[in-house]
Design brief:
This protein is mainly beta. Helix content is 12%, strand content 48%. The longest helix has 17 residues.
């Protein structure tokens, strides 16, 4: 059984490694949300350089403790200061081990992207990880 898992892991690693497209972490690579009696907000962001045809952005929020509530949404900016919501498609955080969502777009109209995670006043701790994958037509 261990051999099967080892072979499967090797094949998967080779397949992913052979791909020229790699998702890179948004900054900060790992941020935490610690809520108490007030709203906590976490931002994971990335400046996009060069010309790209498509973008996929993923947020992963593993729960550490407490009851997770809140939501995450995707925002874009041209100047890196003034952000606007890109889509109304949000991730509503549920009280599960890990919340995750991927947003995919066939164009890259913004210079900056960020995932904004809003946590209302409740008591919990979770981590926020964001990833971005940029693609060119071949």
């Amino acid at each position: 059984m261990k051999k099967i898992f080892s072979i499967l892991a090797f094949v998967l690693a080779f397949t992913v490694g052979a791909s020229a497209q790699t998702a890179v972490p948004l900054s900060p690579v790992l941020d935490s949300i610690v809520t108490s009696s007030s709203l906590d907000t976490s931002y994971s962001f990335k400046k996009v350089e060069g010309w790209w045809d498509a973008v996929s952005i993923q947020v992963v929020i593993p729960k550490v403790s407490g009851t997770v509530t809140g939501y995450a949404l995707l925002q874009g900016s041209l100047d890196g200061v003034n952000y606007a919501n890109i889509t109304t498609d949000t991730l509503t955080l549920a009280n599960v081990a890990t919340n995750s969502k991927v947003w995919a777009f066939s164009s890259v109209p913004y210079a900056y992207y960020r995932v904004a995670v809003y946590a209302p006043s409740s008591t919990y701790k979770a981590y926020v990880r964001g990833y971005i994958l940029l693609r060119r037509k071949q």
